[in-house]
């Protein structure tokens, strides 16, 4: 696990539990989360521990779980167990939250290798981030990335957002402070983070490290 946060309001509809898994073998050029690439900089966490944390956050009410990274499918076995745990919790507790997952792998690759896992998702945003492509659609970093609806719940929750433009919501980035670090969550437009860094510098706040460099 790289990090987990609640509430996330810029990666899917409503107030969401955000999960970022550690490790990525794809390493897209221009990735903003390079701190998630190495496989082992964080201690491992069991699926049971992660689910317990999610359940502790749910007491305030939530609409969905967004899983990102890193590359979630690079931990396919653990991801599969986590999806099973979420489904069991959703069924047993009578909840209706949706599950959205990001992946940098092509949709055809995921359909060929992990069809049973895709069946456990409500929505998926696949394909590698391509820096040269435009920032056009909501919750997606480059124009090649589709929003794929995988269940009836996904159709009901996400159909209106499949072609939604990138600026159809009132914010793209949210900020949190956790463990002595400032985290930025969301899908920024080109130049957003540089503008943010410059604005902070003008106010005397310097970034000693940044995950996008």
> In percent, how much strand structure appears in the residues?
15-25%
Q: Helices and strands: which structural class?
A: alpha/beta
* N-to-C series of helices and strands: EEHEHEHHEEHEEH
Cα Rg? 17 Å
| Largest beta-sheet details | 6 strands, mixed
**Mean model confidence by pLDDT:** 92
The helix fraction, in percent, is 25-40%
Which residues sit in consecutive blocks of at least 5 with pLDDT less than 50?
none
- Terminal Cα span: 21 Å
**For the largest beta sheet, what order do the strands appear in spatially?**
1-2-3-4-5-6
For the secondary structure, the number of strands is: 8
Number of helices: 6
3D shape: globular
Your description of this structure?
The protein is built from six helices and eight strands, in the order ββαβαβααββαββα. The chain is 27% helix and 19% strand. The relative contact order is 0.15. It is globular. It has helices at residues 47-57, 76-93, 107-113, 115-118, 152-158, 192-202; strands at 3-8, 16-21, 64-69, 98-102, 123-125, 148-149, 173-178, 181-186. It has a six-stranded mixed β-sheet. The protein is of the alpha/beta class.
How is this fold's topology laid out?
Layout: E1 3-8, E2 16-21, H1 47-57, E3 64-69, H2 76-93, E4 98-102, H3 107-113, H4 115-118, E5 123-125, E6 148-149, H5 152-158, E7 173-178, E8 181-186, H6 192-202
Parallel strand pairs: 2-3, 3-4, 4-5
Antiparallel strand pairs: 1-2, 5-6, 7-8
In short:
The protein is α/β, with parallel strands linked by helices and 213 residues long.
Any key phrases for this structure?
213 residues, alpha/beta, 6-stranded mixed beta sheet, two-stranded antiparallel sheet, 6 helices, globular
């Amino acid at each position: 696990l790289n990090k987990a946060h609640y509430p996330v309001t810029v990666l899917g509809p409503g107030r969401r539990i955000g999960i970022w898994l550690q490790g990525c073998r794809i390493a897209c050029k221009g990735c903003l989360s390079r701190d998630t690439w190495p496989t082992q900089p964080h201690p491992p966490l069991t699926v049971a521990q992660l689910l317990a944390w999610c359940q502790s956050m749910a007491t305030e009410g939530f609409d969905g779980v967004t899983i990102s990274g890193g590359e979630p499918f690079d931990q396919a076995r653990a991801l599969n167990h986590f999806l099973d745990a979420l489904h069991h919790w959703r069924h047993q507790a009578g909840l209706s939250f949706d599950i959205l997952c990001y992946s940098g792998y092509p949709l055809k690759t995921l359909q060929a290798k992990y069809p049973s896992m895709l069946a456990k998702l409500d929505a998926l945003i696949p394909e590698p981030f391509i820096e040269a492509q435009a920032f056009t659609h909501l919750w997606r970093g480059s124009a090649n990335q589709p929003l794929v609806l995988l269940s009836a719940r996904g159709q009901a929750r996400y159909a209106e957002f499949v072609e939604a433009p990138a600026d159809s919501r009132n914010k793209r980035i949210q900020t949190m402070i956790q463990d002595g670090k400032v985290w930025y969550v969301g899908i920024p437009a080109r130049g957003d983070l540089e503008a943010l860094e410059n604005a902070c510098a003008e106010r005397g706040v310097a970034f000693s490290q940044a995950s996008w460099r």
